Amino acid sequence: MAKKNNIQDKFDNFERSKAKYIPVSAILSDVYGVLDWSRGQDGMDELISCILSQNTNDKNRDRGFNALKERFDTWEDIRFADTADVIDAIRPAGLANQKAPRIQNALEKIYEHVGDYNVDFLNEIPIEEAKDWLVSIKGIGPKTAAIVLCFAYGRPAFPVDTHVHRTSRRIGFIPDKTTADAAHPMMEAVVPPDDYYQFHIHLIQHGRDTCHARNPACERCPLTDHCDYYQQTVKSRDSE
Ligand code: SF4
After folding, report:
1. Do residues 77 and 94 share a domain?
2. 24 lines ligand 1 (CB under 6 A)
3. Does ligand 1 come within 6 angstroms of the Cβ of 211?
4. Ligand 1 centre from 148 Cα, in Å?
5. Does ligand 1 lie within 6 Å of residue 210's CB atom?
6. pTM
């Protein structure tokens, strides 16, 4: 409880953010549909894929991941491979010189902890412990930890990617100056845990389709009544 109160202290108006979530989630569910959690990849694939996704798009991440799996038969083979060979395999994902040692280091940490290349134990331990363990691995931050826990295990962790970060600040769930890392516990306090998966995906869809980084399409957005950016910037500019 003390931790939650501490997070709530970071909001100018935490209750306002919680109240805002109710109509916004209803509208986004109408627009994008109601989603049930379904497992995407297993925990190991999700974790390595997330490391590859840093600073690139989904297409290049997938190209790097598929090339890695084609080149090596097992996680053990990747862990003990010459790093230059891992770099060569994952080159399509970009930043290969950084990502290859991160992947090998993560595999080493996982094996040291589990005695195998498997992170299913993350589904059995308290959620905060699971997050802490993941972010203790070099190159894994709150976003990667939350993606692994939420997508591979359906656990209550809310990932904040670039779209979620932008839309949640514009709408006004969190203060504008909030960093992406700091936004994780704040959005987890605003959104009900049962809705983390769906709301995360809905905000990404909305960011891609409408609330673009440059030139958000406010003129066709269904969230204008609830959006701080629109109310404080676009509406007042248009009424001048
Ligand atoms: S009104 Fe504009 S800024 Fe607000 S969520 Fe919609 S597109 Fe984004």
Report:
1. yes
2. no
3. yes
4. 28
5. yes
6. 0.91
Ligand 1 binding pocket includes 230 (Cβ within 6 Å): yes
When the pLDDT of each residue in the chain is averaged and rounded to a whole number, the result is 93
User: Ligand 1 center to residue 144 CA distance, Å?
Assistant: 26
Q: Could you tell me the two tokens for 86?
A: 């891992």
pLDDT tens digit string along 177-228?
A: 999 999 999 999 999 999 999 999 999 999 999 999 999 999 999 999 999 9
From the CB of 221, is ligand 1 less than 6 Å away? yes
Q: Tens of pLDDT along 109-165?
A: 999 999 999 999 999 999 999 999 999 999 899 999 999 999 999 999 999 999 999
CATH of the domain at 192: 1.10.1670.10
Q: Are residues 48 and 124 in the same domain?
A: yes
17 and 74 together in one domain: no
pLDDT for res 14: 86
Domain range for residue 196? 2-36+159-238
Atom of ligand 1 nearest to the CA of 210: 7
Q: Counting every residue, how long is the chain?
A: 240
Specify whether 147 is located in the same domain as 173.
no
